[in-house]
Amino acid sequence: AQSSATLFGVVDAAMSRYSVRSQSWDGGPARAVRQSRWEMSPSGNFASRFGIRATEDLGDGLSAGFWLEAPVTNDTGANPLSFGRRSTLSLSGALGELRLGRDHTPSFLNDWAFDPFTSNGVGVNLIAVVSSNLAISRALETRKTGPLSQRLLGGGLSAGTDNYLRSSNSVGYFLPTGLGGVYGQAMFAFPEDPQSQRGRYAGARLGWAGGPADLALGYGESTLGNSGASDEKIRSLNFGASYNFGPAKLLGEWSLVRNARRDGTTLAPIDDRYRGLLVGATVPVGAGLWRAAYSRVRFTSGQGAGDASADKLALGYVHHLSRRTALYATVARIGIVNGRNNTAVMAVTPLVVSNPSILPQPYYQVTDGMQARSATGVDVGLRTVF
Amino acid sequence: AQSSATLFGVVDAAMSRYSVRSQSWDGGPARAVRQSRWEMSPSGNFASRFGIRATEDLGDGLSAGFWLEAPVTNDTGANPLSFGRRSTLSLSGALGELRLGRDHTPSFLNDWAFDPFTSNGVGVNLIAVVSSNLAISRALETRKTGPLSQRLLGGGLSAGTDNYLRSSNSVGYFLPTGLGGVYGQAMFAFPEDPQSQRGRYAGARLGWAGGPADLALGYGESTLGNSGASDEKIRSLNFGASYNFGPAKLLGEWSLVRNARRDGTTLAPIDDRYRGLLVGATVPVGAGLWRAAYSRVRFTSGQGAGDASADKLALGYVHHLSRRTALYATVARIGIVNGRNNTAVMAVTPLVVSNPSILPQPYYQVTDGMQARSATGVDVGLRTVF
Amino acid sequence: AQSSATLFGVVDAAMSRYSVRSQSWDGGPARAVRQSRWEMSPSGNFASRFGIRATEDLGDGLSAGFWLEAPVTNDTGANPLSFGRRSTLSLSGALGELRLGRDHTPSFLNDWAFDPFTSNGVGVNLIAVVSSNLAISRALETRKTGPLSQRLLGGGLSAGTDNYLRSSNSVGYFLPTGLGGVYGQAMFAFPEDPQSQRGRYAGARLGWAGGPADLALGYGESTLGNSGASDEKIRSLNFGASYNFGPAKLLGEWSLVRNARRDGTTLAPIDDRYRGLLVGATVPVGAGLWRAAYSRVRFTSGQGAGDASADKLALGYVHHLSRRTALYATVARIGIVNGRNNTAVMAVTPLVVSNPSILPQPYYQVTDGMQARSATGVDVGLRTVF
Predict the structure, then answer these.
(1) Which of A180, A244, C132, C163 is the most buried (most CB within 10 A)?
(2) How far, rounded to the nearest angstrom, does the alpha carbon of residue A32 sit from its chain's CA centroid?
């Protein structure tokens, strides 16, 4: 029977091949090893999900709406469903939209909007991968005991990348349309624990879109702890722009992610920096879309412990079988320099953002005295939207 | 595409402030502390949920129906979805309805139906809070080992308040309509373990509604154990009544909850009693509804270990933006006397029923020699039904 | 509002009585004990579930479709929802269907299709019960540490019977229709771990249906480990046939299940065998359907440790109240000989397949020196499809 709400979602499945080449760096005899595997992977083009949403016209230009969206791991069907992708309630009017609940952070949106691969599959923007690694590793590092779910910021099943991709307990405000192309939003997310402020997020995004051009500035600050023993924040600043020339659309993004913390013993301030850059393009050809991107991230250690860098080249094609369904293929290659200097974030940089759950990625494990130097990934898949 | 079933639900989000004042009682120098926090809370007006239900006409006055309903924690989206609010299958006819599965207990329904705040948000009937505390604390006390989910009666994710709010494995019977305003139901819930009878529930409710009047009597018995070492039951008796004068509707409820158990060592019978009272009113004003309630609970220790009592005053307003959507605000104040004599049930009496999950409530933690004396809560929120 | 997808499902609830008689076998004085219980059980006729699915016509005879289906434990509502029954994405055309994700194995389908009780309730085909026991017990035996969910092959909530009932990470191919009644499919499921190949599945099914006749051959191979320490496979071969005489339909199945492994210390090959047989019938009578089956399983120990056997007689009736809703009753009796020789698979053979979760079945626990000799089960229930 008819409901006032709509059921919607995505199912996306790919066959993927991942291959990593590691080399020795320890000064001993040169060694190298290649680890490869095939696997079935969801979400190579769009993230698999299902959701329920509705908007109600309240009159006088006012409307109310809600959006509940759960990730779907359709390779195994195994993960318990929860509305961890988004669960929001909104009141909208001439002054804009007030949105309450769990939602994407404003500081993530440029990493997604100006990435030709929109943060999915092996082509994903490198700063998104690095930022996810950073969010997960610092959350686990700053709370070392307890079940995994409590050590992550959001405390839930899909909370691994919290305060990078999404924040829980958030109050968001969105500018109304009709401001001459200016768009923007701000978000504050309450910490789960008011004492330590762990889990707090504050951020904003401001952009302008007109004709073929689109540009936006984003900033966000995630608090991992605000007490003597764990005073730590991750701050993200990024700027993205795109221009649609017609036969091709060019995209670019610059990012600076800072992990500012105090050492537990000396309380000396440490300021690790990750500088990201992406240039990309999309080219529509008939029923298809070509996508290409070069992205890189340079890590500067705030402790002088040694720097690291990674770069990535990705090429893909999406063939639309209908408005809802497409076949796609993507190939990507990562190169890593001195990843051993920051193993949690730069040494095991996966080809895909481990979204929505923190998956073991054995194909990136590095044996003693070795470090990953390059990785190649391929997705060949099918995607449908409902 | 069209289904024979209907998708339905509620999304409700509020900004809440909780504040607790604790005082010393240990005879030392007088001390007092106030702990406050803001947080985002779902379900301040109606409980957030989503569900699927259908009724099928089988002819000859017979019909079949099912109802699957899951709680939704839309502040974080974190909790795994399960149909823990209700999952029933029914066969209905001229003789009434037979209902199988997980459902509200008959003995809870008066606590809900005669509460102007219908058991949601900071205004909730005090006996509902005390009964929830009692159900959770005795379930955990009578099974001290194993994972949390197995120590609770229903054994599931939303099982904390089982046999108070809801029972699993239940067979319910509902009187048919057309009995001159008489309504009623009975429920028996099978224990998960037939040896110890732990989890067994039996209860009934009988009422009459005619014109502006409505009154109902409820009784229920929950078994926590029936062996030598853990012979324990919780028995609830309540009577509620309401009368709609037109400009205002008055509501009232009287309740007696008994926790009868035998001491593990001496097997001396202990009979703790909780006596609840509520008087309240709702007043419709244009598109709004004012709600007010005074409720109290007196605890009498069956061991002579010292009594305790709590009372609560709540005032709220719901402003209907449409038939489905409303803004609301509620303020409530609890006072507690000698809560230290029954810390699990009376000393940390939360402002809201922790439904559906057992949430940590650090703003009620009491330091040594201190006890909570008063608490104030405010909800300001938005709710939509779909 | 209208979606392109359809919500569908089943809600099925029964009152069940299970009774087990155990006898002593240890040569001491003869002892016997009967353990009985009533409980509420879902899925006595059809498996309770809810799902979302859609098919999209892409033109040129091509179509895309998806199917997400979650088990529902409607007796308690407790289990977290996950699309563990099926989560597939398909592309279909003149050459057949390519299906990706989690799905039934081809080797299970004969156990289901030629069972008058279609693998649900107390009447279930005995080889299905034995195969489920075997899949669960060998998965747990070959990975002894870690949380339960990681010790099972699929690693998910409903993974207990993985690679018997279903496989995750699978690529399936289905023959197109219009091959003169010939039907068939093949499936390969990627292991979660490419080193040990644990979780790998490969299988196929080929059949022919014409007029009143239907027959099919199935084969499947599940890998539990492929390293020195845990080289183990379960291989299933089965053949089923049915013939519809009009007033009655006869069904039969023959099966051979082999558990081939190497002993951890001596690496001597062990080849346990389970031989299954079923003969059954369904007889439509007005709005009802009578169902009857005799099934048996003979176990031959590959270590000469002693054999065992079980047989089962089941009789049931389904009364259709409408096309979607039915009342049903089933009674079944199992006899077991020398079950102590293979306690994990043959000694505690439950009356129902523990689907979708691994449930404790205390009514099968056997005290020292005793073994279960016979069991009787009754389901009386209601089922509706939506």
Answers:
(1) C163
(2) 31
Q: Which residue has the tokens 């569908």?
A: C8
Q: pLDDT of chain A along its 386 residues, tens only? A: 667 899 999 999 999 998 888 888 888 888 888 888 888 998 899 999 999 999 999 999 999 999 999 999 999 988 889 999 999 999 999 999 999 999 999 999 999 999 999 999 999 999 999 999 999 889 988 888 888 778 888 877 678 889 999 999 999 999 999 999 999 999 999 997 777 889 999 999 999 999 999 999 999 999 998 776 668 999 999 999 999 999 999 999 999 999 999 866 666 788 999 999 999 999 999 999 999 999 999 999 988 889 999 999 999 999 999 999 999 999 999 999 999 899 889 886 776 664 433 333 444 555 667 888 898 999 999 999 99
Q: Min CA distance, B343 vs chain A (Å)?
A: 23
3-class SS of residue B112: helix
Q: Which residues of B touch A91 (CB under 8 A)?
A: 382
Residue with tokens 């899951």: B70
ipTM given for this complex: 0.94
Q: Does C114 touch chain A (CB under 8 A)?
A: no
Q: How far is B249 from chain C (nearest CA, A)?
A: 35
Q: Is A252 on the interface with B (CB under 8 A)?
A: no
CA distance C152 to C159: 6
DSSP secondary structure, A154-179, as one string: S-STT-TTBTTTEEEEEEEEEPPS-S
Q: How far is CA B318 from CA B74, B288, B386, in A?
A: 20, 5, 18
C322 touches chain A (CB under 8 A): no
pTM for this entry: 0.95
Tell me phi and psi for residue A113, to 5 degrees.
-70, -30
Burial code (b: 16+ CB inside 10 Å, e: under 16) for A100-136 equals: bbbbbbbbbbbbbbbbbbbbbbbbbbbbbbbbbbbbb
DSSP helix/strand/coil, B139: helix
- Cβ atoms B296, B269 nearer than 8 A: no
